[in-house]
Amino acid sequence: MRIPSVCQRERVTRVGTVRARQRDRTRRALLDEARRLFAERGYAAVGLADVVAAAGVTKGALYHHFDGKADLFRAVLAEVQEEVGDRVAASAEAEADPWDRLTAGCAAFLDVTAAPGVQRIMLLDGPAVLGWHTWRTMDEAASARHLHEALADLVARGVLADQPVAPLARLLSGAMNEAALWLADSADPGDLGDTQRALERLLASLRHS
């Protein structure tokens, strides 16, 4: 059996590396263009032909990375949810006080999800395309868990009254999602500030007296 030379092995490695980079670039282009189109038009109005044309690749290349339109959307949604979760976590972690971490994280959530593109992909099309259970599972993994953790910490510290955290987290999450949907359709730039202050008052009412 002929053993490949060092040069042959290095050439094979280089070719493999180049192909891997090309695959990564193709996948990145598909995700970027799909996200832009989904944000601008909504899921129902975007076809795979639109995505591959915008990304400059073939439909075969798309199917190499994704099973279809819903799978592509799921990958886009996962990125959006991860970005929202990262923003929420970064804002919360910048605060030293546990209560300030909660309020800063909630404020960051409203701020980032009020953007029309995020609102359309994450809050409107996400549950409709993937189903509530799948969407909720992804949301829990990305940003909702931060809210749950912050509330659990405050209950443990006695800042919030002793109570089950799961229903409280879902109630607050639902309220903030609804507020984000409203803000995305609002033409009044002052509505975000008003909503932030209303949320602060709502959270303050939960503090243990």
UniProtKB/TrEMBL annotation:
The keyword Transcription applies. InterPro entries: Homeodomain-like_sf (IPR009057), HTH-type_TetR-like_transc_reg (IPR050109), HTH_TetR (IPR001647), Rv0078-like_C (IPR049484). Keywords: DNA-binding, Transcription, Transcription regulation. It comes from the Bacteria. One of its GO terms (molecular function) is DNA-binding transcription factor activity. Residues 24-84 form the HTH tetR-type domain. Residues 47-66 bind DNA. It holds the Pfam family TetR_C_41. This is TetR/AcrR family transcriptional regulator.
